[in-house]
Design a protein that fits this description.
With 313 residues, this protein is α/β, with parallel strands linked by helices. The protein contains 10 helices and 8 strands.
Length: 313
């Protein structure tokens, strides 16, 4: 199997068959063995029935149906696990990604490049609710990760299958695969892709996803830097807190004996320490919980999704 196209779908009934027709036209011209994997992420419309009809006509269409909605990352993870192709290209099921870009992705992969990421330079989305938040998030992600890409959120990418073998995804982390791959030594390239306005259905993206992405970014940075030596982070934080406590204590003594103020006359240091500790402890608890989640799933070989039915496997 040369090529696997992985398409997560949630209530995309009107888009499935038009997308399939576009894909088959492009893939037939490539004259390469391929498969198209649709993942139904708990759709409540007739998306799965449309997929089933396609699978009945063409055995190269493979379908995975989740028991409920587990999210885009889980859907892509299932597709990656089940894909048989040497090259895997995920894409959205809303027709905004253009299948005509697939040959360009394939041409960009090679010995000098294992990951090709799409860049929706002329993005056809709302300015205030999609473009500006996405631009800010991409800048922040590049700054923290050290991997400079313009568009982490573009689902359409191309991976050599070996790159995905040891990558485990949770939360909203599918967009960080190029970062994982780069940290493991893979070479990453970015190409400009065509982005089309949505014709049918409603977008599944909300502004609260940005918050999730930023929290996931903290997690992957933690796992990259401190997963082997977490004492460097927690111990460093503890020593810093002790230093701040010493400084605070010294100031309290100074104001008490030489500044003419009692301990209770200066509430601002207390408030600063309190809010700082609350914020820091909250983040640290989140990181510990994240590690516990990974231990739970990976030690018991559990997946983050549940499949109800598979067709043509």
């Amino acid at each position: 199997m040369k090529l696997s196209i992985v398409i997560p779908c949630l209530n995309e009934s009107a888009n499935i068959k038009p997308l399939y027709r576009e894909l088959t036209n492009i893939l037939t011209e490539l004259q390469q063995d391929y498969e198209i994997i649709f993942i139904d992420d708990g759709s409540t419309d007739d998306s799965f029935e449309k997929m089933r009809e396609l699978a009945a006509e063409e055995t190269r269409v493979r379908i995975v149906q989740f028991r409920k909605t587990f999210g885009q990352t889980a859907a892509l993870t299932a597709g990656f696990h089940l894909a048989r192709g040497e090259i895997i290209i995920p894409m959205d099921g809303d027709l905004q990604n253009d299948p005509a870009d697939i040959p360009r992705f394939l041409a960009s992969l090679g010995d000098d490049c294992e990951v090709v990421s799409g860049w929706r330079k002329k993005r056809k989305d709302a300015l205030l609710t999609r473009k500006i938040p996405s631009w800010l998030a991409n800048k922040l992600i590049s700054l923290i990760s050290g991997v400079n890409l313009h568009d982490y959120g573009c689902t359409m990418k191309a991976y050599q299958k070996d790159v995905l073998r040891d990558i485990r995804l949770y939360g909203e982390m599918h967009r960080f695969i190029p970062i994982y791959a780069s940290w493991q030594g893979a070479r990453v390239k970015e190409i400009i892709v065509n982005h089309r306005p949505r014709k049918y259905g409603k977008t599944k993206y909300r502004l609260n996803r940005i918050i999730k992405v930023l929290l996931d970014l903290i997690v992957i940075k933690f796992l990259d830097k401190y997963s082997r030596n977490p004492i460097y982070l927690f111990g460093g934080f503890g020593l810093t807190s002790m230093l701040l406590a010493l400084i605070s204590f010294s100031l309290m003594i100074y104001y008490k004996f030489w500044g003419g103020k009692t301990f209770i006359a200066t509430p601002l240091p207390m408030l600063t320490v309190m809010f700082g500790l609350i914020g820091a402890v909250s983040i640290l608890i989140g990181l510990v919980a994240e590690m516990g989640t990974r231990t739970y799933y990976e030690s018991q070989k559990k997946e983050i999704y549940q499949i109800k039915e598979k067709i043509n496997f």
